[in-house]
Amino acid sequence: MTPALASGGGPVIPNFGQGSSCEIHNGWFCTDWVRAHWGDTLQPALVQHVELAAIAVAIGFVLASALAFAGFRFRLLDPPIGFFADFLYTIPSLALFQLLVPLTGLTVTTVEIALVSYTLLILYRNMIEGLRGVPPDALEAARGSGFTRLQTLVHVELPLALPAVIAGLRIATVSTISIATVAAFVIPEGLGRPIFVALEQEVFKTEILTAGGLAVLLALSADAVLVLAQRALTPWSRLERRA
Amino acid sequence: MLADQFEPGTFVDAFRFIGHNAGFLLQKSGEHLELSLTALGIALLLSLPLGLWLGHRHRGLFFAVSVSNVGRALPSLVLIAVGLTIFGIGFWNNTAALVVLAVPPILTNAYFAIDGVDRDVVEAARGMGLGELQVLWRVELPLGLPLVIAGIRIAVIFVIATATIAAIAGGGGLGEIIVDQPSYGLSGVVAASLCVSALAFLAALLLSLLLRQMSRRPGPIP
Amino acid sequence: MIRKHTRRAAKAVFAISLGVAIVLGGTATAAPKKTAAAPTIVVGTKNFTEEYILGQLYKQALEGAGFKVSYKESIGSSELIDTAITSGKINFYPEYTGVIVQDLAKKKSPSSAAATFAAAKKFEETRGLTLLNATPFYDTDSFGMLTSTAKKLGVKTIADMKKVKSFSFAGYPECKTRITCLLGLKQVYGLTQVQFVPLASISVYTLLDQGKITAGDVFSTDPQLAGTKYTILVDTNHIFGFQNVAPVVSQKLLSAAGPKFAQIVNAVSAKLTLQAMIAMNKAVAIDKATPAAVAAGFLKANNLK
After folding, report:
1. Which residues of chain A have pLDDT under 50?
2. Cα B11 to Cα B126: distance, rounded to the nearest angstrom
3. CB B192 to CB A95 under 8 A?
């Protein structure tokens, strides 16, 4: 009773090989699975994840800078921007992704808009606090030296705000890498994808632990890199701490 | 019920959803709070005393900072999935994951709050004959309270928002609606999300009020 | 005092990140919209293992024949992916004929697989789509439970469940409103005492294994059913319908892609017997191979790549 059965005999069913005993019985960590699937599953997911996070942080940084300047220069703007940012942060990422889907489809764009939003809040707060935290003495000194408004901004305020900015960048980067795992709920990209697939495959432990472990390592590495950058760009903060 | 179009109408629909399903949303909010508050309670028990004591002794800076760094690097989805592998579906898999998420802000903030109290004030208190625990309870904690509560506030918002993902692993709560757009439609997702935000705001507000209330206690003269 | 190199460093940081953002933004938006002569086949799949395998089979066969294929995996349930194809976001996806007739067209199940295929094709053709040939294999929803549970409750058919006071039944969210699933259980079998447990990301078998549900919506080609651990109850009222797979394609794509397109797709479909599909499902679900690798192996063994 099968419609439209074409000519020819039955198919050749190749031997797909059997999974190792570890894989079949869902052991805690099957090294053969990791070795076999690094290239086709784990590495692509890792690369996608890095891309998602990097783009989000980069764009978030630019937008946050603009907003921070605006909120810093025009004080009236700060409360509404700040409030909007706080509200956005209470929206669960799962919900924000789904809300954007009808607008921008099941695409990377949707994920990026959401990730950028979360990045914005952290960076905005830190940048504004950084700019506000510039000691009045430094501003006095600049004015005394005859700096223009722009020169003060570029030569005094920005460098002194730098520690706060980089601190914010650290938090934003790690958070973005973390939230990007949930992106796999809408598009099959990033390290969240192997996790979701593993959950459906009767909670396949190895895949969850490997993909999850990679996400954690990625976040820690990014954090470490930024710490080094922070030390390199703000050597005086190290002296302060020693004092 | 399918890929609804997102327009201002969606928010109207969301409020209509809330109106029609108030009881259901309330029940789910209750589940949501139950999970969140249990996790927060356990986290507080585990990390608050530890953070306060370490800060008091000015020991464990590296530990406090590392807990914060590592804690931030743990994606909630990973914790939920790992919780599932360890505990199977039930009460503990999601609770454990949320506890792990809540500990870092509470512990780190408690540490820095107490560690950062003016040493002269602490010395003066010791000079007056107060024991170590009294110094912590009557001098350091009141002075460091804002930062301690700030850390708890962060943990509360974080846990309430993250409890939605727990629905993936059978956690129930408002997340159950948010992950199930096919059943509840986009209006349902928006409605449940608004409820989560409302819960988070309420909790943060309560904590701010609590802080103000506790700050009114007679404490040391700063 | 602020050191000169730190000033420069700060400026550099801002400049570099601005530049990076601009470049990344530029490359993202500049992704060219392909308006080439040959049409791009945008293959979509639903969100479970068998669909991933089917998607890969058709995708790789078409790519091997020189077609340009864009692949959108795991779009969602039938209802969601149907919206995707009617709105033009994809133009090809594998669907189950019974689901089209009963759940999308909301019509009564015809009494044979051939009639179901014909009815499905007629329905899709009213919407600018059509069906290519159906596969020999079929994959219906099934009422599954642990064999131990079935023995304990003393049930062999779904109708037997009427004597159970209350029980839980897990399924994908869309199961709730489908006559080929929960709705059928309630309306056709009169099992009003069932409590529905929607699945978010966990498989039915995990829930069954951990004793969290009495029964669940399983697929008849699931490799887990090969052993004796699980049992499916007999669907005497035939609510699950006839569910051969047939690729849904947009008529525009069919005419633009030429006769070779349909030829290739039909050649693949013809080889998908029940045995083949179960073997491929097993390789992915049990032996943890990837759908892409399994599809590649099958196509190569049958000279379809």
Report:
1. 1-7, 241-243
2. 58
3. yes
How far are the Cα atoms of A140, A156, A160, A161 from residue A136, in angstroms, in the given order?
6, 11, 11, 13
Say if C2 is an interface residue toward chain A (CB within 8 Å): yes
Contact flag B170-C172 (C-beta cutoff 8 Å): no
Please report which residue ranges of chain B form alpha helices under DSSP H.
8-20, 22-57, 61-72, 76-87, 92-115, 119-127, 132-134, 141-162, 175-178, 181-215
From the CB of residue A192, how many other CB atoms can be counted at a distance below 10 Å?
Answer: 29
Show residues of chain B in contact with A95, CB under 8 Å: 164, 178, 189-190, 192-193, 196
Least trusted range by pLDDT, from A82-96, A202-216, B76-90, C145-159: A82-96
What is d(CA C97, CA C121) in angstroms, rounded to the nearest whole number? Answer: 8
Q: Which chain A residues touch C10 with a CB distance below 8 Å?
A: 158-159, 162, 233
Q: Which domains does chain B have, with CATH numbers?
A: 26-215 (1.10.3720.10)
Neighbour-count burial of C274, counting CB atoms closer than 10 A to its CB (0-12 exposed, 13-18 middle, 19+ buried):
middle
Task: Please provide the average confidence, as pLDDT, over all residues in chain C.
Answer: 89
Which chain B residues have a beta carbon less than 8 Å from that of C217? Answer: none
Which pLDDT does position C19 carry in this prediction?
60
**Structural domain that includes position C84:** 40-138+242-301
| A239 interfaces chain C, CB cutoff of 8 Å | no
C23 touches chain A (CB under 8 A): no
Facing A92 at nearest CB: one of B4, B74, B178 = B178
Domain A38-233 architecture: Orthogonal Bundle (1.10)
pLDDT of residue A128: 86
- CB distance C86 to C124 below 8 Å: no
Judge whether residue C6 has pLDDT over 70. Answer: no
Chain B interface, mutation test: which of A86, A90, A110, A174, most B Cβ atoms within 10 Å? Answer: A90
Shortest alpha-carbon distance between residue A211 and chain C (Å)? 15
Residue to test with chain A: of B28, B65, B78, most A Cβ within 10 A: B78
C174–B89 C-beta distance less than 8 A: no
Instruction: With beta carbons under 8 A apart, name residues in chain C contacting B181.
Output: 173
Statement: residue B1 has pLDDT above 80: no
* Domain count across chain C: 2
Q: pLDDT by residue (tens digit) across C48-74?
A: 999 999 999 999 999 999 999 999 999
Question: Is the residue at C19 inside a domain?
Answer: no
- State whether residue B89 sits within 8 Å of chain C by CB: yes
pLDDT of B82 > 70? The answer is yes
Report angle CA C239, B180, A178 to the nearest 5 degrees: 140
Please give the C-alpha separations between residue B35 and each of B198, C11, C26, in angstroms, as whole numbers. Answer: 16, 47, 44
Statement to judge: residues C261 and C129 lie in one domain = yes
State the CATH number of the domain containing residue C220: 3.40.190.120
Report the C-alpha gap between A229 and C290 in whole angstroms. Answer: 40
Average pLDDT of span C194-223:
93
DSSP letter, residue C215: E
At C12 the pLDDT is 57
Q: Which residues of C touch A92 (CB under 8 A)?
A: none
Same domain, C134 and C147: no
